[in-house]
Automatic annotation (TrEMBL), chains A, B:
<keyword id="KW-0285">Flavoprotein</keyword>
<dbReference type="InterPro" id="IPR050627">
    <property type="entry name" value="Nitroreductase/BluB"/>
</dbReference>
<dbReference type="GO" id="GO:0016491">
    <property type="term" value="F:oxidoreductase activity"/>
</dbReference>
<keyword id="KW-0288">FMN</keyword>
<protein>
    <submittedName>
        <fullName>5,6-dimethylbenzimidazole synthase</fullName>
        <ecNumber>1.14.99.40</ecNumber>
    </submittedName>
</protein>
<feature type="domain" description="Nitroreductase">
    <location>
        <begin position="7"/>
        <end position="173"/>
    </location>
</feature>
<dbReference type="InterPro" id="IPR000415">
    <property type="entry name" value="Nitroreductase-like"/>
</dbReference>
<dbReference type="InterPro" id="IPR029479">
    <property type="entry name" value="Nitroreductase"/>
</dbReference>
<dbReference type="InterPro" id="IPR012825">
    <property type="entry name" value="BluB"/>
</dbReference>
<dbReference type="Pfam" id="PF00881">
    <property type="entry name" value="Nitroreductase"/>
</dbReference>
<keyword id="KW-0560">Oxidoreductase</keyword>
Length: 206, 206
């Protein structure tokens, strides 16, 4: 699939998972795409933890449900009504969770390109996620990035050592379709802004 | 171009810029690709500042040269010798700098999906960079991510308000070719690890 087509049809999938589980060969293609991401100083500070054990999916889903409720409770009433119908996860339905983790110590003390920007390594791990996401679209596989969790909970769930930071839970699985419009637009949560508002020439807001 | 082909041929370009300047129509295609990235709560917290003014390119290049020297000075001798021949920028040669910025306040106080993970918005802006990068490969345009700078310097260079964080300077321009092997491998700085080392099943290092 063409890069622009993948970028345009990519969706954050929550409700469209078929319930089938992605086969290992396809999953490895997606992880290989992620692993080909650029990284600061070629440090490749990411890891991918694949989770399919029903008990672990259930534990994480229950934790996310709790965080969802806490977020709902934090909203003013009008926003809460808008939020209520929005599905925020697909942990069990996708059948596969991929936890992406970040290791700040990977590559030793002298990371080329991270001398002044400590977050540069973290950014590398995020780039890997977008590679995976676009490759997934090519395969008809949906990805939903769940961020309604406490990092400590997820770190313990996957038995991560103290220096390993989980940065994403990705629900990965076959989908019936990619929705034409993003969920958050369809449900009236927030619409995007035009590109022109995001582009500045020469200086910020110049 | 196919997604996998773009992912495989993408390089962090430093030395291969032709010296031609990317035309505006192509640049806008790349920025549109970036702008189609997923974002937490559809907050689209990114902005893109396009810099072509020679004086600004020179100022930034001089700042980066200084940081390069500081990094070299921080290295033990063996590593310094490995680092010396590696080109770390192409600020003037690319002819176009795209500074990607992050606005933590974009979208108001209730960002869906950022309730527990403060960095989730920052991650969104990074995803946009990978979209741009892959679209650029499709167009025969190179991207080099320069991270040898102090954020405060870059913020002042682009007149960013205090709440706007510059997260990347991307050198964007036509290239002669995409190198077969990444520079950091060719120059012996650091080679990648196999995918198998990055994939864990069920639990981290399980």
């Amino acid at each position: 699939m063409d890069v622009y087509q993948a970028i345009a049809t990519r969706r954050d999938v929550r409700a469209e998972f078929t319930g089938q589980v992605v086969d290992d060969a396809t999953l490895m293609k997606l992880l290989q795409a992620a692993h080909r991401a650029p990284s600061v100083g070629n440090s490749q500070p990411w890891d991918f933890v694949v989770i399919r054990e029903p008990g672990m999916l259930d534990d994480f889903a229950a934790h996310v449900a709790l965080q969802r409720q806490r977020f709902a409770d934090s909203l003013p009433e009008g926003r809460r009504n808008t939020f209520d119908p929005i599905k925020i996860e697909g942990i069990r339905e996708s059948g596969t969770g991929v936890v992406v983790t970040y290791d700040h110590g990977r590559g030793g003390p002298h990371i080329l390109g991270r001398h002044t920007i400590s977050d540069a390594g973290l950014f590398s791990a995020v780039l890997a996620i977008q590679n995976l996401w676009l490759a997934a679209v090519t395969e008809g596989i949906g990805v939903g990035w769940v961020s309604f969790y406490e990092e400590q909970f997820l770190a313990e769930l996957i038995d991560a050592p103290a220096h390993i930071r989980p940065i994403a839970w990705l629900c990965v699985g076959p989908v019936r379709e990619f929705a034409e419009r993003p969920d958050l637009e369809r449900f009236g949560w927030r619409t995007g802004r035009p590109l022109e508002d995001a582009v500045h020439w020469g200086r910020y807001r110049a």
